[in-house]
Inverse folding.
């Protein structure tokens, strides 16, 4: 009889994957995906942190516009004096000329600052989007874990009632009731932990984007379906192109270009521009007409140290660009490997779950009611089932977090939120 019981236990363990995953589905799509994505992106753009960075970008754009204007304005000068009975006066105007075309260099420098500001804004938007999506995934997974724990707790409550009824008829003994109580106490702790975790994750979501409605917290299924296939040449080429236009790379490249333009600017500043003036007036009974030329002489300071420092900063910015590019390339490769790992395991888990429904749970209950399965064996199988479903929820969560990270590291997170 004991040998048959062991065989039945082994058979029951094979049915662990037969019960459907509890809780709300993470991939439940909205009735209007385009509307969800538009609303979600609007919420991200309205976040105070994003607004602050956007205003910095707008300031850089204003500076870039101002850099197109001439550097020097004309100067008006007057001179009045009295000499004896005569009033002498002179009126002149002078203009400093941009002899070296400093405007063009300043325009170029401001343009690169604007590029860096735009890249910084793009990176901030994508980072905020990734943080919010990750919080939503964690919240949805915590919701599933909570529902699963509550379901297991309810099953043990029902088991206690059934055991009490069977005790009265003499089918089970006191040890069965004790085992059920022990199982329920363990499940009470698990339920409390999952509910507490859910509350913490809710706070994360509210902090990330307080304006999200309940409907906006459900990420459409289509978002998870847009997975790049690295086995194709076109997709591999796309990844290479993504690297070149990643906001982090663009920021480092813009900083490098800014340094180069600053070197030219420092060199120009070392050579002062000439100022030419013309004045006219009257001295006594004579009319006076004058012409002036002013040209600073860099005798005491040639600004060679400043020029050397600017060139050294350019070399530093160049090295930093290549370092950032290399690092981002490695991060992209690592992120894709992590995504592949979780994606393959989650796909395998779904295959094992495919086509299995409530019949497994019903079969286990029938086996216990008929006495073919002991209470200890029943509790063990139910524990295995709970752990299996919990592992499935965690796999789904980690797969989706890995996908979000992959899109962030490739700079394609916003593009993925745009339906094709």
């Amino acid at each position: 009889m004991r040998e048959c019981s062991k065989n039945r236990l082994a058979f029951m363990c094979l049915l662990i994957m037969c019960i459907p995953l509890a809780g709300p589905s993470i991939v439940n799509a909205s009735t209007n995906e385009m509307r969800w994505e538009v609303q979600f992106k609007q919420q991200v753009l309205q976040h105070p942190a994003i607004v602050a960075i956007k205003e910095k970008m707008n300031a850089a754009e204003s500076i870039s516009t101002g850099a197109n204007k001439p550097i020097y304005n004309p100067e008006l000068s007057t001179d009045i004096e009295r000499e004896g009975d005569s009033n002498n006066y002179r009126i002149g105007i002078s203009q400093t000329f941009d002899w070296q075309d400093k405007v063009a260099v300043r325009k170029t420098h401001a343009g690169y600052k604007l590029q860096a500001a735009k890249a910084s804004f793009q990176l901030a938007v994508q980072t905020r989007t990734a943080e919010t999506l990750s919080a939503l995934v964690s919240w949805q997974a915590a919701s599933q874990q909570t529902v699963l724990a509550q379901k297991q707790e309810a099953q043990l409550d029902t088991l206690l009632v059934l055991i009490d009824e069977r005790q009265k008829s003499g089918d089970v003994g006191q040890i069965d009731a004790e085992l059920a109580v022990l199982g329920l106490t363990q499940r009470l702790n698990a339920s409390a932990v999952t509910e507490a975790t859910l509350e913490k994750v809710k706070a994360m979501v509210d902090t990330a984007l307080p304006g999200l409605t309940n409907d906006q917290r459900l990420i459409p299924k289509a978002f998870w379906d847009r997975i790049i296939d690295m086995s194709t040449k076109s997709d591999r080429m796309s990844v290479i192109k993504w690297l070149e236009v990643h906001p982090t790379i663009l920021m480092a490249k813009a900083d490098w270009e800014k340094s180069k333009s600053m070197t030219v600017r420092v060199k120009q500043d070392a050579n002062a521009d000439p100022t030419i003036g013309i004045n006219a007036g009257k001295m006594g009974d004579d009319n006076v007409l004058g012409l002036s030329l002013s040209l600073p002489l860099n005798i005491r300071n040639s600004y060679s140290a400043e020029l050397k420092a600017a060139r050294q900063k350019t070399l530093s910015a160049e090295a930093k660009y290549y370092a950032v590019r290399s690092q981002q390339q490695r991060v992209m490769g690592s992120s894709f490997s992590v995504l592949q790992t979780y994606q393959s395991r989650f796909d395998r888990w779904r295959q094992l779950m495919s086509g299995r429904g409530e019949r497994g749970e019903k079969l286990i209950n029938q086996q216990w009611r008929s006495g073919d399965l002991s209470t200890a064996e029943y509790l063990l199988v139910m524990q295995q089932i709970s752990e299996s479903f919990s592992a499935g929820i965690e796999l789904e969560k980690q797969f989706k977090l890995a996908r979000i990270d992959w899109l962030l590291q490739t700079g394609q997170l916003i593009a993925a939120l745009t339906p094709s």
Summary: The CA atoms of residues 228 and 234 lie 10 Å apart.
